[in-house]
Specification:
Blueprint lengths: L2 H4 L14 E2 L5 E8 L7 H16 L3 E7 L7 H10 L5 E3 L24 H8 L5 H11 L1 E16 L6 H4 L3 E4 L3 H9 L3 E4 L5 H6 L5 E4 L1 H6 L8 E17 H5 L3 H35 L4 E4 L4 H17 L3 H9 L1
Parallel strand pairs: 2-3, 2-4, 6-7, 6-8, 9-10
Antiparallel strand pairs: 1-2, 4-9, 5-8, 5-9
Length: about 325
C-alpha cells in the first residue's frame, strides 16, 4: 500500500470510531485513522504505512487506513487527547513524554541516559520489561501500546557552540513536557523549559531559547538547522517511540482484526527501529556535507552520566518504579 492509497479516505471528524458499517453478509468495513506530524519520507510515517500493510496482510477482511501527514491533525499533545477520548484518530506514533499527563511513569522509557547503547536499547524493546508502563497507560489513559519504534539518537542543537560542561551551564533549552526531562538537564546546570514543539523554531529565532535537543531526522525534516546550526554529540537519548492505539477503538474491532493489529504492531515496531537507527548517522552526515550543521563532540561525556544517575534514581523511586529501572539497567 502506498502513502497515497493510505490517505485516500475522507477524514470523518471527531466520531467515536471511524466508519464501522455492517455489510449485507454481516462483515464489518473498518476505517482506521492515523496521524503523523511529518511527511511521507519520515521514519514514523513509513513505519505507520508498514503497519497498515502488515494488518492488511494478516486480516482476512476489509480495512482501510486514512493516514494524515504533516501535522494536519495537530501536534502530539492533541493526539493524546484524541486517543484518550476515542475521537479523530485511532493510531499514531508519539513521544512518551506527551502522555505523562495521563500516565506519570510513562516518560521513564524515554529518560535521558537510560540506555547504554543501541544493543541495550534493542534488548529492552524486544522484551517485556516495559509491560508495567504499558499497563499504566492503558488503565489511566485508555491508550494501548502495540509496538515500539524509535532509534533516533538525541543530541543538543544550539544557536552557539556547546562543547563542554562549562558551555552547557545556563543554556536556555527547550525540553519535552515530562518533568524528568527538565530535571535531568537542570542537573547538568542547563536552563531547561518546556514549550510546545511547534513553537521551537520561532523561539530560537527570537532568542527566547538558545536551542533544544532532538534527533537527526527531525532536525533535517523541519529545518531546525536554519536557526540552530550547531549539534553537540551528547547522545543522551536513544528514542523510544510507542506505536499507540485508542483503547476504545481497539475494543470496537473484531477479534481477528485485534489479533492482526497486535502482530502487525510488534513487527512494524521492529521495522521502524531498524529503519530509524540506521538512518540517524546518515542524516547527520548529509547535513554536515550540505553545510547546514557543525558537529562537536562533548568533552568528558562520562561526567554527564555520573551527574544524572541520582536524578534517575530519585525519579524512579517517586514513581514506585525502582525495580523497573533496575530491570532496564540489567538487560
Amino acid at each position: 500500500m502506498t502513502i497515497q492509497q493510505s490517505t485516500r479516505a475522507l477524514f470523518t471528524g471527531a466520531a467515536l470510531f471511524g466508519a464501522l458499517a455492517a455489510s449485507g453478509a454481516g462483515a464489518q468495513e473498518v476505517t482506521l485513522r492515523g496521524a503523523s506530524m511529518f511527511d511521507e519520507a519520515h521514519a514514523f510515517t513509513r513505519t505507520m504505512v508498514r503497519f497498515a500493510e502488515l494488518v492488511e496482510e494478516k486480516y482476512d477482511g476489509d480495512v482501510t487506513f486514512d493516514l494524515r501527514l504533516n501535522g494536519e491533525l495537530g501536534v502530539e499533545a492533541d493526539y493524546v487527547t484524541f486517543l484518550q477520548q476515542g475521537v479523530a484518530i485511532d493510531y499514531t506514533i508519539m513521544a512518551p513524554s506527551n502522555m505523562a499527563t495521563f500516565a506519570p511513569a510513562i516518560p521513564l522509557m524515554d529518560m535521558p541516559f537510560l540506555f547504554r547503547d543501541l544493543a541495550h536499547w534493542e534488548a529492552v524493546l524486544s522484551s517485556d520489561v516495559l509491560a508495567p508502563l504499558e499497563a499504566e497507560l492503558l488503565e489511566k489513559a485508555d491508550i494501548m501500546i502495540i509496538g515500539y519504534t524509535g532509534g533516533g539518537v538525541r543530541n543538543i542543537l544550539s544557536s552557539q557552540p556547546i562543547r563542554n560542561i562549562d558551555e552547557l551551564a545556563g543554556f536556555r533549552m527547550r525540553v519535552m513536557g515530562a518533568p524528568i526531562q527538565a530535571q535531568i538537564f537542570s542537573a547538568l546546570n542547563a536552563a531547561p523549559s518546556a514549550i510546545a514543539y511547534n513553537e521551537v523554531y520561532n523561539a530560537i529565532q527570537t532568542g527566547v531559547i538558545s536551542g533544544f535537543e532532538n534527533e537527526a531526522a527531525s532536525i533535517q525534516n523541519l529545518k531546525f538547522y536554519e536557526v540552530a546550526p550547531y549539534v553537540t554529540l551528547t547522545q543522551h537519548t536513544i528514542t523510544v517511540r510507542p506505536i499507540v492505539m485508542s483503547g476504545k477503538t481497539f475494543r470496537s474491532l473484531p477479534e481477528d482484526l485485534q489479533a492482526a493489529i497486535l502482530e502487525a504492531g510488534a513487527e512494524a515496531g521492529a521495522y521502524g527501529r531498524a529503519l530509524e537507527s540506521s538512518e540517524d548517522g546518515i542524516k547527520l552526515q548529509e547535513m554536515v556535507d550540505a553545510g547546514q550543521i557543525t558537529l562537536f563532540e562533548f568533552e568528558n561525556r562520562d561526567a554527564l552520566l555520573d551527574m544524572v544517575t541520582p536524578v534517575q534514581d530519585a525519579f524512579a523511586a517517586d514513581l514506585g518504579a525502582t525495580a523497573l529501572l533496575e530491570a532496564i539497567r540489567a538487560k
